[in-house]
Structure of Phosphoribosylaminoimidazole-succinocarboxamide synthase:
Amino acid sequence: MARRRQLYEGKAKILFEGPEPGTLVQYFKDDASAGNGAKKGVITGKGVLNNRISEYLMLRLHDMGIPTHFVRRLNMREQLIREVEIIPLEVVVRNIAAGSLAKRLGIPEGTRLPRSILEYYYKNDSLNDPMVSEEHITAFGWANSHDLDDMTSLALRANDFLSGVFLGVGIQLVDFKLEFGRLWEGEEMRIVVADEISPDNCRLWDAKTSEKLDKDRFRRDLGRVEEAYQEVARRLGILPEAANGDMKGPEVMQ
């Protein structure tokens, strides 16, 4: 395994120095967490499946003209991505009431919303990722009005497309989280989709039974977590080349 310099480790992924300037290697872990790290565990094979699912969805978005940081998958657990300046916001698109929205507003979970709703959250674990408004975002300089326009447009386009992709395999896209980054190409900058798109950051329900096929099975101790991730991959036609968990992490350069 190639020795690479580790740059960052989060709850679900590790970033390593890329093979050429302007690139990074993103490694998907099996570690799982909920409640900003209050609950921790391992979902066997999650990293392999999320790598493949995110690759598939990022490529589909690219084909639709939605720019992303994804370059190519390297192996079962790693993908090559473009290095971007991450905007410290999570953009959540909601189609059906679930999770914190249902609790905050007292809406029964499963209620279809009158239209898709966008929410912004400030990425800060120590503050529990508080919900923020456009006024907060522009006042504190996390993004400007043009950035927000681009992020909103890309998020809504991604929602329309991904909703269709999932519905085509019998899955409802209840809500999902996107992160964005600034990609610099010389003096030019554009906003691109970053991070990942997987059952870790999407709520996915079976279209007929509303069975949960995402990380809520871990959050709520529903069991059969690995099977849910596998079912999403199976429906999307994604088959890992080797058994889940076969691949060890890259050797870290100190």
